[in-house]
Write a structure and sequence with these properties.
This protein is α/β, with parallel strands linked by helices. About 35% of the residues lie in helices and about 20% in strands. It has ten helices and nine strands. The protein has a six-stranded mixed sheet, sandwiched between helices. The longest helix is centred in the last third of the chain and has 18 residues.
């Protein structure tokens, strides 16, 4: 049995989250056409069976935010997620968009991979969108930039080359134990995934600066056998952004809620009653505490475990009342 941790590294919109979802076979990471959709590390677990020369393996994939030069506290925290994911990993998958020309951004991410001093595969992604005759030249160009352990052309969206990639990864990982149960596909709790699915709809439906100024926090989560009740707050930085997200007569917020609810029901396997509220938290992207609320799901679970009178209203910084809910730590598992 081989096992280990594999970090997926790349620039924004290179296809990291699409690859994670394709390899795991479930939607764990939200995907949009907007840059910097992923804000934190997302773990996906793949168990592969022995097949020919491929060894049996448990592959723990770690999706990361797109590598960029940070301008505010949020982006600095996102880049820290990238660096943290590289510490102690067994293999790096550096993924690049073959449609994009090599530039300073690519040099930056390549330098990060080099400094990690870890075995690295280069994945040439989106090969379905280019003339295949250009591939050989691309492979030669990238080979001259770094001594990659392997260079593998793939299409994450079309799932082309993914089986070959799994074989290569399983073979490259060291012998070791299973870190997670066979049927577990992530270590992220369901409530975090629910928050991300709501944020995905904000990204899809809102334009300009609003999606980047938004974060989502689950305020109440009550599970039932047939119905799950969820209340969530969408935080923005200005009143004008709040008005945009609500929309005329609430049409925008309704559209976001409907899209999110459909995705959440598919993940949870129950009907969902979803309440959304839009709140203003001025300048939250430069507020370290607010950024932690937005990114760190471990902190969210710890906050849930605090006595109710010790909790604070995240919008106003003062004690608030809340319905009693147990810290919900269920994680998605394989559908049977």
């Amino acid at each position: 049995m081989h096992s280990g941790f594999v970090t997926i590294l790349g620039r924004p919109n290179a296809g990291k989250s699409t690859l994670l979802n394709a390899l795991v076979g479930e939607k764990l990471a939200i995907v949009t056409h907007k840059a910097q959709t992923t804000r934190n590390r997302i773990t996906g677990i793949v168990n592969v069976k022995r097949k020919g020369r491929r060894p049996a393996a448990q592959i723990v994939l770690v999706d990361t935010p797109g590598v960029h030069k940070p301008e505010d506290q949020l982006n600095k925290r996102m880049m820290q997620e990238v660096y943290d994911s590289l510490a102690g990993c067994d293999l790096i998958l550096l993924i690049v968009d073959v449609q994009a020309k090599f530039g300073t951004g690519d040099e930056f991410v390549l330098e990060i991979a080099k400094r990690a001093n870890t075995k690295t595969f280069l994945l040439l992604n989106k090969i379905d969108l280019i003339d295949k005759t250009k591939l050989l030249a691309m492979i030669e160009e990238w080979s001259a930039r770094h001594d990659f352990a392997q260079i593998i052309p793939i299409s994450a969206a079309k799932e082309k080359g993914t089986d070959e990639l799994l074989t290569a990864v399983a073979t490259a990982l060291p012998e070791g134990p299973k870190y997670f149960p066979e049927d577990q596909i992530t270590d992220q709790p369901e409530r975090f995934i629910v928050a991300e699915l709501i944020r995905e709809q904000v990204l899809i439906n809102a334009a300009q600066e609003v999606p980047y100024a938004s974060s989502v926090l689950i305020e109440n989560y009550e599970e039932g056998k047939r119905l799950t009740r969820i209340s969530a707050a969408i935080f923005v930085e200005r009143e004008g952004q709040k008005g945009i997200l609500i929309g005329q007569q609430g049409t925008m917020l309704k559209r976001i809620g409907t899209g999110a609810r459909q995705q959440i029901e598919r993940i949870l396997g129950t009907k969902v009653y979803l309440e959304l509220f839009v709140k203003v938290r001025a300048g939250w992207r430069d507020n370290p505490a607010a950024v932690e609320d937005a990114i760190d799901w471990h902190k969210q679970l710890l906050d849930l475990a605090k006595p109710m009178d010790a909790k604070e209203d995240p919008a106003k910084g003062r004690p608030r009342t809340a319905k009693k809910t147990k810290p919900q730590q269920n994680v998605p598992r394989k559908k049977r």
